[in-house]
Each structure stands twice: as structure tokens, then as C-alpha cells.
């Protein structure tokens, strides 16, 4: 089969690239070994909360804030195009502390966040409980960011894939790429597990935590992307319900209509996707420390996903060094839902114009070459 652009991976990154290419009238082929959005992208809690991963201004801050800023209009367009609802909401988020000894640390972070320009309010424990009466009585301070929000991550990916398909992209599921064909410094095609060959002019590797496997087929020295498992669970919403996102105790609570998502562990466990009793117990007890009423909430579901982790927690974007027609778009760690659309737009631009947008340039692989 002849196709110009092949994208390995049908997570948020691969689907967003295909979507932005399709908006420019270019139909790419997304090849996904399972189902669309069934790995990290579908497991994600859907936080659109850029402050957490940031310790002040810099390239990652620019990327996260621009990524989130793209979403309101994009979600509206995708909803119109596909009819899918993604639960996009600016619910606001509270970053809480329960231990008075940790207040100074939160204050330091708050000072570091100020130059980012996001609306924020410093609250006492009582002021935080006025906003969220279910918060534990021992919460003694909080930072409230009213514009942070959430999206249903899986629905978002499905909408990107469907909109891309409607504009001509080919989305192949249950199709695993097992080898790449090359001629000198160009990839000329990909091979599926069924032995089918897809020829390509350009290849994008958007294979999430598995990206290093794909670059290994090019005899590329080991790429610094590793899986970092995150376990989550959902609990029944109490009545009255939690309205805002809560961070605290190294965990978060994300409220929905009927359930609260509690996340997430951070574990080096290779590619194992198992949910463990230890993980579930930690999530439940931490959730209860933040919101004691959750002791009475039924557990609805548990699941896990693999974050594509890089050593500096920043993505790897742009051409694969030494190859003329291979582009990487991976390593989004804990922020791929927030930044997937911006990644998609930037990588589509790169494929169409040969130019990487300035906001994306700091994330090239070259930063690790020394
Ligand atoms: C527990 C958890 C919570 C998270 N919460 C948030 C959050 O709240 N907000 C946020 O912004 N981010 C969050 N993230 C991070 C976010 O989910 C990831 O950064 C993002 O999903 C990465 O997207 P991706 O497309 O690169 O990877 P993936 O979604 O993993 O997609 C990669 C795809 O490539 C496919 N693939 C791999 N190899 C092959 C092959 N050889 N052939 C064919 N297909 C292949 C895989 O099957 C997979 O579907 C969370 C992640 C986890 C694990």
C-alpha cells in the first residue's frame, strides 16, 4: 500500500498529528496496534492543570500554557465536527497542604508560579473549605487556580481520530508495526505483524512509552524514553459532591458527575500494566486523607497506564538525528493530554514546511547529545 505519511501510534499525539495534517488537506495513515487511545492517553486523568509540573517560566511553561490555551477552541471545533462530547471544563484546582510545616514550601512554589500569569489565589484552610466544604479539617493552606480544568482524555483522542478520518486520514487499529525498511538514511516503508508492507515518504514515531523500541529498528542508540506506570481508581461522588480538582499528598482528585478519579502512582515497573493492591490501597487512603467523606464511597474501577518518561520530564520532538525522513513525537510524561494538540499542530507544520515551530525547538533530542 502507498501512503505518504505513516504515524506509528494512535494515542493523543499520533491522532493530533493526523488531525492537523488532515486540516491542511494531507491525509496520513495512523497505525495502532490496539485500539485508539487505549494506552496512556485513555488511562490519563485528563487534568488540564499546568502549574503542577512547573517550577517557573521557561520552555516547558511556554509549551504547557500554549498547549492548554489551544484547547477551548479545538474542543468546540471537534464537538461540532464529530458530535462527541469531551467533558471539557474549567473546574478550577486547589493545591492543598495539611502539614503546617509544608506551608512554606507551597508558598515558595506560589512565588515561582506568579510570573506565569495564570490567575491564582492564596487561601487559608478555612477559605479553601468555603470553596470545597468536603476538604479535610486539617487542610491549612491552599493555592486556588480557577482556570485549571479537565477533559475526558479518551473521548478527546477518539474525537481527534474521528475528525481526522472524516477529513481523509486512514486510521488502522489492531495493526502492529514490527519492522522498518530503510535505504541509506531514509525509511522507505513499515511492516506489520501480518506481513503487510506500507511504503512511506515520511515516518512519525508517536509510540508513547514504546518509542525506544521503534527507534531501535533504526539501530538508533537507545532513546531516553522509559515507561513510568501510573495507577488510578475511581470512587463514587459523595452527596453533596466535590466540584473542583484537589491536589495534595502527592495525589489528585478529579471530580466528574458521578465519580471522582483518584491518581496516580509513579512506579518503575517496566511495561507491566498491572493494578496492584499496594497501589489501590495508597490511592484510597490518600484520597480519604484529603476528603474524609470518601471513606464511605464505593470504588467503581481501577486501571493503569504507562507514561512515556524522559530524564528531564520534557518531550522529545522533531527530526530523528541521522535520518532524513523520520520524526519523533513522544516523551510527554504526565502532560501529554495538555500538550498533545500543540504537539500535533507543531509536528504537522514540520512535516508540511520543514520548519519546527520555535516553541517546540527546545525539545529536540540534541539536548541529550552532550
Ligand atoms: C496514570 C496516568 C495519568 C495521566 N494523567 C494525565 C493528565 O491528567 N493530564 C495530562 O496532560 N497527561 C496525563 N498523563 C500523560 C498522558 O497520558 C501521556 O503523556 C500521553 O497520553 C502520551 O500520549 P502518546 O500518544 O505519546 O502515548 P500513548 O497514548 O501511550 O499512545 C502510544 C500508542 O502507540 C501504540 N504503539 C506502540 N508501539 C506500536 C507499534 N509497534 N505498532 C503500532 N502501534 C504501536 C500503543 O499501542 C499506543 O496506543 C497521564 C498518564 C498516565 C499513565
Question: What report would you give on this structure?
Answer:
With about 375 residues, the chain is of the alpha/beta class. It has three domains: about 200 residues, FAD/NAD(P)-binding domain, CATH 3.50.50; about 55 residues, no CATH class; about 80 residues, D-Amino Acid Oxidase, Chain A, domain 2, CATH 3.30.9.10. Helix content is about 30%, strand content about 25%. The protein has ten helices and 19 strands. The strands form four sheets. It has an eight-stranded mixed β-sheet, sandwiched between helices. Strands 8-2-1-12-19-18 form a six-stranded mixed β-sheet. Strand 15 and strand 16 form a beta hairpin. The protein is globular, with a radius of gyration of 21 Å. It starts with a strand and ends in a 17-residue tail after the last helix. The mean pLDDT is about 95. The site of flavin-adenine dinucleotide (FAD) has 44 residues, from helix 1, helix 2, strand 13, strand 17 and helix 10.
Question: Might you state the CATH topology name of the largest domain?
Answer: FAD/NAD(P)-binding domain
Based on the coordinates given, report the CATH architecture of the largest domain: 3-Layer(bba) Sandwich
Low-confidence stretches: none
Shape: globular
Average pLDDT, rounded to a whole number, is 96
- The secondary-structure class comes to alpha/beta
- What percentage of residues falls in helices of 4 or more residues? 25-40%
Strand order of the largest sheet: 5-6-4-14-15-16-13-17
Number of strands: 19
Distance between the termini: 40 Å
- Counted by DSSP, the helix tally is 10
Order of helices and strands: EHEHEHHEHEHEEHEEEEEHEEEEHEEEH
Portion of residues in beta strands equals 25-35%
Bound compounds, please?
flavin-adenine dinucleotide
- Multimeric status of the protein: single chain
> For the record, what CATH class of the largest domain applies?
Alpha Beta
Amino acid at each position: 500500500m502507498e501512503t505518504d505519511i505513516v504515524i506509528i501510534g494512535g494515542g493523543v499525539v499520533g491522532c493530533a498529528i493526523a488531525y492537523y495534517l488532515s486540516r491542511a488537506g494531507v491525509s496520513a495513515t495512523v497505525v495502532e496496534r490496539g485500539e485508539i487511545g487505549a494506552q496512556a492517553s485513555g488511562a490519563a486523568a485528563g487534568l488540564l492543570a499546568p502549574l503542577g509540573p512547573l517550577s517557573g517560566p521557561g520552555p516547558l511553561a511556554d509549551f504547557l500554557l500554549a498547549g492548554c490555551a489551544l484547547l477551548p477552541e479545538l474542543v468546540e471545533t471537534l464537538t461540532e465536527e464529530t458530535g462527541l462530547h469531551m467533558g471539557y471544563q474549567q473546574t478550577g484546582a486547589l493545591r492543598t497542604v495539611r502539614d503546617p510545616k509544608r506551608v512554606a514550601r507551597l508558598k515558595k512554589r506560589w512565588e515561582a508560579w506568579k510570573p506565569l500569569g495564570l490567575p491564582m489565589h492564596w487561601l487559608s484552610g478555612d477559605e479553601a473549605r468555603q470553596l470545597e466544604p468536603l476538604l479535610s479539617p486539617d487542610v491549612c493552606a491552599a493555592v486556588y487556580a480557577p482556570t485549571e480544568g479537565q477533559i475526558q482524555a479518551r473521548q478527546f483522542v477518539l474525537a481527534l481520530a474521528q475528525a481526522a478520518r472524516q477529513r481523509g486520514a486512514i486510521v488502522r487499529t489492531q495493526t502492529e508495526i514490527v519492522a522498518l525498511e530503510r535505504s541509506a538514511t531514509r525509511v522507505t516503508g513499515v511492516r506489520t505483524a501480518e506481513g503487510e508492507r506500507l511504503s512511506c515518504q515520511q515516518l512519525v514515531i508517536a509510540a508513547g512509552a514504546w518509542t525506544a523500541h521503534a527507534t531501535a529498528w533504526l539501530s538508533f542508540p537507545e532513546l531516553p524514553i522509559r515507561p513510568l506506570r501510573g495507577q488510578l481508581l475511581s470512587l463514587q461522588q459523595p452527596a453533596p459532591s466535590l466540584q473542583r480538582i484537589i491536589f495534595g499528598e502527592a495525589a489528585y482528585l478529579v471530580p466528574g458527575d458521578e465519580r471522582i478519579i483518584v491518581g496516580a502512582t509513579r512506579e518503575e515497573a517496566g511495561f507491566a500494566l498491572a493494578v496492584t493492591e499496594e497501589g489501590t490501597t495508597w490511592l484510597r487512603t490518600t484520597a480519604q486523607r484529603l476528603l474524609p467523606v470518601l471513606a464511605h464511597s464505593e470504588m467503581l474501577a481501577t486501571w493503569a497506564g504507562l507514561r512515556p518518561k524522559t530524564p528531564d520530564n520534557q518531550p522529545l520532538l522533531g527530526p530523528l538525528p541521522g535520518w532524513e525522513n523520520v520524526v519523533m513525537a513522544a516523551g510527554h510524561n504526565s502532560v501529554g493530554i495538555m500538550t498533545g494538540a500543540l504537539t500535533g499542530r507543531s509536528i504537522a507544520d514540520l512535516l508540511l514546511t520543514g520548519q519546527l515551530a520555535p516553541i517546540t525547538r527546545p525539545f529536540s533530542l540534541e539536548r541529550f547529545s552532550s
